[in-house]
Design brief:
- The protein has eight helices and ten strands.
- With about 230 residues, it is α/β, with parallel strands linked by helices.
- The protein has a single domain, classed as Rossmann fold (3-Layer(aba) Sandwich), CATH 3.40.50.300.
- α3 packs parallel to α7 and α5 packs antiparallel against α7.
- The protein is globular and about 45 Å long.
């Protein structure tokens, strides 16, 4: 579904990504791990049109997409969920969700999509008339993911969804990402708690100093086993 082919990304003269290549097949969850500051968010932003690619190619469903702007990529079903969430704090939960369906095609099915989001996140249905700024960290993350689904996402690049969440909420958050994948959404996930999704994640890439240093296939473990060393 997605192919990143030897891309280079710079911030001014600083070379951030060095010939990075990866692929994500349809209906996969693929993990991306690495230390802070090594280019994970930059890679996600490059895929989603928020950062310019200096060289190399990015293809989605066989079509080259590097160089397209973010609205054009959202129209193709490519959605970025940033670690900062970027909610509208003085709008209600429902208003934030409906903003995810701003393009013509998602707008036509927004009621259906809203029902789907509320099935996935019953807490958002309960909170739909509350202002976004009144939500807990876990609820805010649910809202960010739900807004992405409202855009009729085929592919979601999700950056650190458990960041800042209480430990008892992390597993619930990662479980909902697994359910999104069951609904047909292909996912590239930056997550430090990725071992908790073992069994759902097919492959994991490690990014170090702007270079893919390893690819681990078939991230699996039995119940009770320790998280794999990724």
């Amino acid at each position: 579904m997605l192919e990143v082919d030897h891309i280079d990304v710079y911030y001014d003269d600083f070379h951030v990504l060095h010939g990075v290549s990866l692929h994500v097949d349809r209906a996969e969850i693929v993990g991306l791990v690495g230390a802070n500051g090594h280019g994970k968010s930059t890679l996600m932003q490059a895929i989603c049109g928020l950062t310019r690619v200096r060289s190399g190619e990015i293809r989605f469903e066989g079509e080259r997409i590097d160089g397209l702007d973010t609205p054009a990529l959202v129209a193709r079903g490519i959605v970025y969920v940033a670690e900062q969430r970027h909610l509208f704090p003085d709008m209600t939960v429902k208003e934030n969700l409906l903003l995810g369906a701003y393009l013509p095609a998602p707008r036509r099915k927004r009621n259906e999509s809203l029902d789907l989001v509320f099935q996935l996140y019953p807490r958002l249905r309960e909170r739909q008339d509350q202002l976004a700024r009144t939500l807990s960290g876990g609820e805010a993350q649910m809202l960010a993911l739900g807004r992405g689904l409202m855009s009729a996402a085929k592919f979601m690049a999700i950056d650190e969804p458990s960041l800042g969440l209480a430990p008892n909420l992390v597993q619930d958050m990662l479980a909902t990402i697994g359910r999104m994948n069951d609904m047909g959404v292909t996912i590239l996930l930056v997550e430090q708690n990725i071992g908790q999704l073992a069994g759902a994640i097919r492959r994991v890439y490690r990014l170090e100093e702007g270079v893919i240093s390893a690819e681990t296939a078939e991230c699996r473990r039995d119940a009770g086993d320790p998280a794999p060393n990724l």
